[in-house]
Design goal:
By secondary structure, the chain is an all-alpha fold. Helices cover 78% and strands 0% of the residues. The N terminus is likely disordered.
């Protein structure tokens, strides 16, 4: 035994008493066979558990889950006009249905669901939530009154938080850091764009042929089947690593939340994303109605021409955003927030040009450019959050972000747009929605400013 400074070497009784040698050997044998506990496998490198094909299989399943999530959300946008006609409600009531009612419930459920995802089995969270929101979407199609439709939509809002936070948390565990931005982009942005295409394109087509109720039913039913597939095809790394539930003992919910909110760059991301969503959610939900009312576009054209246009723009924007982030952030982490700042600032005037025109095809071209810029910017936000939040707070960080932009942005954006449209009705008639949406574009500018400010502190806030 080699003595280190400040330690005392115990005496060897065998050296002085040969009779003690046997007892010393027996004691040594006991020590040598005493099991030494191994340290737990690091939770920081769970992606080493899986091969490449497994990762991409998991990613494909999570992509379909996100697609279902946004399919069930966006389908309402092409059903607002038939719902308005059947139930004789105002644009403000439609904004309440599509925005505030949904987002309030989403926000209420987001934090407890995220805490469950941060400490428990994320696969179970996803499969249970997917089953529930799919069933509630089917119930939307069975509503016989506007009140019943609101209640069913509330159910969708309460269950959809079980998708994004645990899915992103799993992706970060499945993929190493240098490949996360693109993986997150594929699930969050491509899944959202594909869900929007199904919601607007397929949902509008079904509504035109079979009615708005059947559109809801056929949107929700496949999600129940997908939930069963997700249960058997997704993996939970925590089960192999053996630390499900240990996060609670390491860091309480309040402590985790306080540590997140002390990061100034994260706070600016919350503000920027929420303010951006005020404008973006209003555009997403009311642009189909604008096309029908102001540009006299048919429901079929909205579902096909505009639906394909916005989907391709979102897919390309997300692809360029994810690729740019992986490339530029290795040189300077501030590109995580500089890219959204520039993209949102440029998107505002392009959207304005699209809304002030009078022809469908000029709108389609300009809207494509604006949607591309918005998708490029928002694709960068989630990798930026994961760069600063810390490994033990990933689902919580995304849930707080989702709480913020859902409650503020998606809750009040469509409501404000609907109220402005009703207020402008006496002055502009059928054109009231056009001017309402133009005013909503001003929110993109403070959103860009918030992300630019985040660049000042993101270096000091980085945490793996």
């Amino acid at each position: 035994m080699v003595a280190t400074p400040g330690t005392m070497v115990p005496p060897n009784p065998a050296a002085d008493d040969p009779g003690a040698e046997q007892s010393t050997l027996e004691a040594a044998s006991v020590v040598s066979f005493t099991p030494i506990p191994h340290p737990p496998r690091s939770a920081a490198t769970p992606w080493t558990l899986y091969g490449s094909w497994q990762r991409w299989t998991f990613l494909a399943v999570l992509f379909l889950v996100t697609t279902s999530n946004y399919f069930d959300y966006f389908i309402l946008s092409v059903l607002l006009d038939p719902i308005k006609r059947e139930f004789h409600v105002s644009d403000s009531m439609l904004g309440l249905l599509s925005g505030f009612c949904f987002s309030l419930c989403y926000a209420i459920a987001a934090l407890p669901v995220a805490r469950w995802a941060d400490t428990g089995n994320r696969r179970s969270v996803i499969t249970l939530a997917l089953s529930a929101w799919s069933a509630m979407t089917v119930l939307c199609g069975m509503a016989q009154t506007f009140g019943q439709l609101v209640v069913a939509r509330v159910g969708v809002g309460l269950t959809e938080p079980g998708a994004m936070p645990p899915a992103q948390s799993l992706i970060v565990d499945y993929f190493p850091p240098e490949r996360r931005a693109m993986a997150l982009t594929i699930v969050t942005q491509w899944g959202a764009a594909t869900g929007a295409l199904f919601g607007i394109g397929l949902g509008g087509y079904i509504a035109a042929k079979l009615g708005w109720r059947m559109a809801f039913v056929l949107a929700g039913a496949p999600g129940i089947v997908l939930a069963i597939a997700a249960r058997f095809m997704l993996a939970e790394p925590r089960r192999k690593l053996g630390f499900i539930g240990t996060v609670v003992r390491e860091e309480s919910f309040v402590t985790a939340l306080k540590r997140l909110l002390r990061k100034r760059s994260y706070l600016y991301m919350l503000v920027g994303t929420s303010v951006f969503t005020l404008s973006n959610s209003a555009m997403a939900l009311f642009l189909p109605s604008y096309l029908i009312r102001s540009l006299h576009t048919s429901s079929f054209q909205v579902s096909t021409v505009w639906g394909v246009d916005v989907t391709i723009a979102n897919l390309l924007g997300a692809l360029v955003g994810g690729w740019s982030t992986d490339l530029l952030s290795t040189r300077d982490t501030r590109w995580h927030v500089w890219l959204p700042a520039g993209a949102f600032a440029l998107a505002a005037p392009v959207y304005a040009l699209a809304l002030t025109g009078g022809h469908l095809w000029s709108f389609i071209c300009l809207d494509f450019m604006a949607e591309f810029l918005a998708a490029l910017g928002i694709a960068v936000v989630f990798p930026a959050v994961h760069a600063v939040c810390g490994n033990r707070r990933r689902a919580l960080a995304i849930a707080v972000l989702a709480f913020s932009f859902t409650f503020i942005g998606m809750g009040f954006g469509p409501l404000f747009a609907g109220m402005l449209s009703d207020a402008f009705q006496a002055l502009y008639g059928a054109e009231s929605l056009r001017y309402s949406l133009v005013l909503m574009l001003f929110f993109l500018l403070p959103a860009a400013a918030a992300f630019w400010r985040a660049g000042r502190t993101i270096h000091s806030d980085l945490e793996t």
